[in-house]
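Q&A log
Question type: sequence-to-structure
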Amino acid sequence: MSAALEPSIDGFDSYSETRIDRFLPDFVECDGAPAPRVAETFDETDVDAALLIGLTLKLAASVPNFTTEWSSNQLCLPMQMVDEICWRLKDDKFVEILGENGPFSYRYTVTDRGREQARRLLEISGYVGPAPVSLQSYAAMLQWQIAERSMPKAEDIRAALEALVLPNEALQVTELAVSSGRSLFLFGPPGNGKTSVARMLHNAIGGDLWIPYCLNLDGHAVRIFDPQCHQRVGNNGEGSGKVDGRWVKIRRPLIVAGGEMTIDSLDLSYSPSLRFYEAPLHVKANGGTFVIDDFGRQRVDPSELLNRWIIPLEHQIDHLTLQTGQKVEVPFKLMLVVATNLQVSAVADPAFLRRMGYRVHLDKPTPQGYARIFQRYAANFDFPAPAELISYLLDRYQAENRDLRCCEPRDLIERARDICRLRNTPFTLNREIMDLAWTGYFGNL
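Response status: OK
Response body:
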């Protein structure tokens, strides 16, 4: 089966019901919600049987001896299928039986012939772990889950942003971005809530998602599930024998990439020592939110990054490159949030901005907005901020010709808390404490 999905003029959005049904796994109920049903035959795995047999042999060669049950748990395949694979390996004289290990389970060891074959297979691909799913199944499953997801209402989005003091116009645009699933471009001076907005908008959607541990791309393993990026939910039906263990249930992912992002990090990462691929961050973010923070401060020219995103934004597909030079088409189904504190004209051209769904300018707060932010944050510690103290701070901003920033009420109050902790006194806000907090925060600048 080809690694790329069938050509489509409009990309993955044009997936017909027939095409979804063709690759979509069957479902079984797990914890009151649909889950991918365990594949009972090789055909139902949608992966070449030879690949699964080779993966089992590589796993077997990693230990002195193994059992059917242990192999089943490691490969996330049903016992019956692993038993059939082991018998095929036995017939080929790659493994031999040491004895029984309970009903329908045997203890095996790898023969010299099997170790040599495993060594050859490991030279091609070093991946050993949960069996992969096909790219087609992954794309169909992702498409189905997104279509089934209920989008948040306007009041849900406002509730998620409640901790921030935002102009009503900015609130309305962010509501449109989330409810439509389109991308969002946030710009404005630093320290005024762009990253906070991105994270809180993600929380407004929420939900869970089934993703595979690994993808098969024409015999190449691409790891998708990443414990550093993904948060597992529940036990995924382990032990039930009903749920396909090759899939893992996670919280809808939020992945943030900042100044460390490069062009190379947006493609498949191949490890010569491990000999398998790691999916790029935006693929791991599929079904969730991908935030490009501090856009324009990456170690690459902004125009290169813009050109990299134009096709995915336009068609909701991306093209990744294998070591062989082969291009594979993968879904780009996520909410993209780009945040920058640089001049828009310096980091984005009209072609890119046209493809972004919505744009929001988060400017510095007004004195009234600053006061509201200060009061809200102080209220978190059950301490009403005196109006005269806020007026005093605003006057000091003006006297020192400083721009107001939305993050600074929080930062100053946190330093006031540091002072009170150091003095071992109850938390309070007064001029003396705030003067010291001011000096500790702004220094002599």
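Response note: The chain has 18 helices and 19 strands.
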